[in-house]
Specification:
This protein is α+β, with helices and mostly antiparallel strands. It has 28 helices and 41 strands. It binds one RNA strand through helix 9, strand 15, strand 19, helix 13 and strand 36.
RNA sequence: GCCGGUGUGGCGGAACUGGCAGACGCGACGGAUUCAAAAUCCGUUGCCCCGGAAGGGGCGUGCAGGUUCGAUUCCUGUCACCGGCACCA
């Protein structure tokens, strides 16, 4: 009888075999509900175990299905979760769908198919694909942001913001009813259109207007890029030369009333609390820069036109005020409109008009300074001198007060402008080491000079920059000419979109145009279906929802407005803007704690259990029941993994919502995510010509010498890593890889490619390496002819020792998310124990069944299906999801004898074997006597010998 | 322009606190198996030089310096690539 070739053996671990056993295990574990994690109080919940909440950034389910980037982070968290489960944690590991968004809407516009239909289909595809990877998600907690049962609570949270204000004294959000009560009780004066007036003397409208100015969600006016033809508002980068990027239609810059979030109220806390979380430093820096806190002063410059009015500026360098030789206001500044009316200078009007129609991005493209005098003048309060006021688009209306005092000697932008328009430049700071030459601005710190005026009584000559700033601010404050002031780059968050496929706002407008909330009990405000999703062409912005006229025009009662607010038969118009894509992702991590809760956005007990935990450094103790900064983690989610592209917006917005909810007592922790990790991007190969232009993969061939040429021209091209894209035809489809090798191989390959945080190129050719590893592992444990388990009769002590080391190493590596080196260690172990093809004699090589079972357990987090199958065939019952992480004996990690290098003059000359516990003197004696070393010593006693026991010896001659 | 990150064999990468550079995988080369090929298995593989061989020597972590007995690791300067921000007063 002839032996069949290895590939033809019936139980060979082939791609097809892997697919069969993976699907069988997935079906079995799903039926069993193996990864369902009960909440406190539910049957099967074990309160003795610590909690671990591990979250992936949920995907936007696109019609194209999963790409290879998705499973990278998902595999990483899957490994951690399986490991933590084996280490005895209750693990919350959910998945869901960020399903509102533009692509589905654009598809609907093109085809008329309701976005819900396409989105639901895309979700089904994503779910099927993710399940095929065998990820250990608790699918019973699945959610989608488009579920009415979910967005009901998105709307509810928005209503909490609408019903709250930020109390600057307590630095936290409070219900607006408390503000109203205080105003009424103390009968405070409030600002009205007709000047300050006592609360009791105010009309209902005036009171309402005052409260509206304090809401965390408020109606604000913003200049937007409205494209009448496209019927939508465009982002700045979608506007080129005043026309839409798509289609080249004219774009108008116009003010639009929209819902805003007062995120700027939280600027300081969002900045400070970055110190409380374990996040990548780069991401913290990005957020800090985005918030852009800068300290300085607000200064009033009196106009000299006898009007008694003044111009306010913000400056971070009040110490340079003596050098302020002119002022600049943004073209949109109200003062400019007055100047235009007054001066009648056609050049000024033309400049302002031109600047107004240039989008911000355009403005920033050209750094050439342009501007125009306004004809107005102001008085420098420090010098008493008269200085001109210019308008120029290098000053932005949106930052500070939209006006600056220009100090050309000490600010590069002001310097360039002064040069261009021949304005005076006066040096007022002496910077050590860089004398002022008049050739460029000197923005460093130093000593104030020429900074004294008898006329105004201010003198800071000789002061260093910091005390000079303080002195000027004190002087300004004493004369009520200004004050210390902190400014932020961060703007309030524009939360309205003129789109269909988003959460409707729970807001209606009455006949007078006043807004009123829909009561919580009437939520959700469901998105009505439309016959036609295309945008409305109009000169005045109209969201698509306006087409649902029957829905939009209704009564207060039908809309669910509290009868105490409006009579039920009052006619109202619903808000037809919708929320942006960010809305649903701001709080999904909370909903996962109790996704089916119907009476609250999250069950309070479940939220407390999964989000609140003690710091390890605070020592042992009972699970906390409320947040204590001394002993608790600031952040709830123990590990959040996702792409760095969300480093600013998503993560900043989620932090803002969370802090608001924390202030209102609705969540337990001040931060949402305690630890954050960004996985790197998976790129793909592409080819580059000498002129740096890119060539698609299929137009290139590899030559036998390993170089690449373009097929059509024979021109040499170089291989580079690039983003996967349709045009480069280098997109890898995970389904294909799984069909060929199985999900275990796919998972292992992505984790083995390199460090999780690094961006790395997909190389299809390399996959076979980890596949062969699984094949070897399988062959080590299973007889490929019979499918029966193998097992050496006795344990090889060297293998046993290596197994202990590997258990220790893999555990450590998983903890630090170093999966590539963990897998390398597993490969080394299996290689050391491997039995060659056909060798099934249990007395030679291999591992005992007990050793194989431990190997299966440490392999399980990485390649769960094959590990489960091996363990089951070895006789384990129940599946490895019930197994514990194997223990190791620390004594087994210590070598009795170590090989250490001996260097002479820093050059390696020999390796010597010494007992691990040998003293420095013993090692030195062995090293100096070594025959390989002696010839290099030159016959003289060494000057110095450095011995690091267990490490190395270095001899200096 | 500013901020951040990364540069290690033909390729992906390893080296945890300044202590044997190149673990592990791919590829390549040689061999086994096969009628043959694919697949699989075994071995070799940083580069250069001397040697028939055993063996020996030199160079080497983008580049140039520095600190140190010793540097991929720390410091200074510099170059390249990637990412983010960009007139924020």
């Amino acid at each position: 009888m002839t032996e069949p070739a290895p590939n033809d053996l019936p139980h060979r671990y082939s791609g097809a075999y892997a697919n069969r056993l993976e699907e069988a295990w997935q079906a079995r574990l799903e039926a069993e509900g193996a990864f369902r994690q009960p909440n406190p109080g539910e049957p099967g919940f074990d309160p003795s175990r610590p909690k671990f909440y591990c979250l992936d950034m949920f995907p936007y389910p696109s019609g194209a299905g999963l790409h290879v980037g998705h499973p990278e982070g998902y595999t990483a968290t899957d490994i951690i979760c399986r490991y933590k489960r084996m280490k005895g944690f209750n693990v919350l590991h959910p998945m869901g769908w960020d399903a509102f968004g533009l692509p589905a809407e654009q598809y609907a516009i093109a085809t008329g198919v309701h976005p819900e239909v396409t989105t639901t289909k895309a979700i089904d595809t994503f779910r099927r694909q993710l399940k095929r990877f065998g990820f250990c998600y608790d699918w019973s907690r699945e959610l989608a942001t488009i579920d009415p049962g979910y967005y009901r609570w998105t709307q509810w949270i928005w209503l909490q913001a609408y019903g709250s204000w930020f109390d600057p004294a307590l630095r936290k959000a409070r219900p607006i009813a408390e503000l109203e009560a205080t105003l009424a009780r103390e009968d405070r004066a409030i600002e009205t259109a007709a000047g300050p007036r006592r609360w009791s003397a105010c009309s209902r409208l005036e009171r309402q207007a005052h409260l509206d100015r304090h809401r965390l969600a408020y109606l604000g006016e913003q200049t937007v890029n409205w494209c009448p033809k496209l019927g939508t508002v465009l982002a700045n980068e979608e506007v080129i030369d005043g026309r839409s990027e798509r289609g080249g239609h004219p774009v108008l810059r116009m003010p639009l009333k929209q819902w805003m979030f007062r995120i700027t109220a939280y600027a300081d806390r969002l900045l400070e609390d970055l110190a409380l979380v374990d996040w990548p430093e780069s991401t913290k820096t990005l957020q800090a820069e985005w918030i852009g806190r800068s300290e300085g002063a607000e200064v009033r410059f009196a106009l000299d036109d006898g009007s008694g009015e003044s111009l306010e500026v913000f400056t971070t360098r009040p110490d340079t005020i003596f050098g302020a030789t002119y002022m600049v206001v943004a073209p949109e500044h109200p003062l400019v409109a007055r100047a235009v009316a007054r001066s009648g200078d056609p050049r000024l009007a033309a400049y302002v008009e031109a600047a107004r129609n240039r989008a911000d991005v355009d403005r920033q493209q050209s750094k050439e300074k342009t501007g125009c005098p306004t004809g107005l003048h102001a008085v420098n309060p420090a010098t008493g001198g008269r200085i001109p006021i210019w308008t120029a688009d290098y000053v932005l209306m949106g930052y500070g007060t939209g006006a600056i005092m220009a100090v050309p000697a000490h600010d590069e932008r002001d310097f360039e402008f002064a040069r261009a328009f021949d304005l005076p430049i006066v040096q007022v700071v002496e910077v050590p080491g860089t004398p002022f030459t008049g050739e460029q601005a000197n923005s460093g710190e130093g000593t104030a000079v020429r900074s004294a005026s008898a006329a105004t009584g201010l003198s800071i000559d000789g002061l260093a920059t910091a005390p000079a700033k303080a002195a000027v601010i004190a002087w300004l404050e004493a004369r009520r000419l200004g004050a210390r002031r902190t400014n932020y780059r961060l703007r309030d968050w524009l939360f309205s979109r003129q789109r269909y496929w988003g959460e409707p706002f729970p807001i209606v407008y009455d006949a007078e145009g006043l807004h009123h909330p829909v009561s919580a009990s009437a939520l959700p405000v469901a998105l009505p279906p439309l016959a036609d999703y295309s945008p409305i062409e109009s000169d005045s912005p109209q969201p698509p929802l306006a087409k649902a006229a029957d829905w939009a025009r209704t009564t207060a009662g039908a809309a669910g407005v509290d009868p105490a607010v409006l009579p039920p038969d009052a006619p109202v118009v619903r808000e037809t803007n919708t929320m942006p894509g960010w809305a649903g992702s701001c709080w999904y991590y909370l909903r996962y704690c109790s996704p089916r809760a119907i009476d609250r956005f999250v069950d309070a007990g479940a939220e407390r259990y999964w989000m609140l935990s003690r710091r390890r450094s605070a020592g042992a103790g009972p699970a906390p029941d409320r947040f204590d900064p001394a002993t608790c983690h600031a952040g709830g989610v123990d590990l959040y993994v996702g792409g760095a592209e969300h480093a600013v917006l998503h993560l900043l917005y989620a932090r803002f919502w969370h802090k608001m909810l924390f202030d209102l007592g609705l969540v337990s922790t001040p931060e949402p995510m305690g630890r954050l990790f960004h996985q790197g991007m998976i790129t793909s190969f592409a080819y580059q010509r000498r002129d740096k232009s890119l060539v698609a993969v299929d137009l290139v061939e590899e030559r036998s010498d390993g170089t690449f040429v373009e097929k059509a021209t024979g021109e040499a091209v170089t291989q580079i890593a690039a983003k996967m894209s349709k045009s480069l035809r280098n997109v890898v489809n995970p389904d294909d890889v799984i069909a060929e090798h199985g999900a275990d191989t796919f998972r292992l390959y992505e984790m083995y490619m390199g460090p999780l945080e690094a961006s790395k190129p997909w190389n299809t050719r390399d996959i076979v390496g980890v596949f062969r590893f699984l094949q070897r592992t399988w062959r080590l444990a299973i007889d490929e002819r019979t499918g029966e388990p193998l097992g050496a009769a006795t344990a090889d002590p060297a293998i046993e020792k290596l197994l202990h080391r590997t258990i220790a190493k893999v555990g450590e590596d998983i903890e630090r998310l170093a999966f590539n080196t963990a897998i390398a260690a597993l490969i080394e172990l299996v290689n050391a124990a491997t039995r060659p093809t056909g060798m099934t004699d249990p007395t030679r090589g291999g591992m005992t069944r007990d050793q194989l079972e431990r190997l299966a357990r440490i392999l399980w987090p990485f390649a769960p299906h094959v590990a489960d199958e091996i363990a089951a065939r070895l006789g384990a019952t129940g599946g490895l999801h019930r197994a514990a992480w194997p223990s190791f004996d620390p004594a087994m990690l210590v070598e009795d004898e170590v090989e250490i290098p001996v260097q002479v003059q820093g050059k390696l000359r020999a390796r010597i074997k010494v007992p691990a516990k040998a003293s420095a003197a013993e090692i030195e004696a062995i090293a100096l006597g070594d025959p390989q070393v002696v010839p290099h010593l030159g016959g003289r006693p060494p000057k110095k010998v450095i011995v690091v026991p267990g490490r190395m010896v270095n001899v200096v001659t």
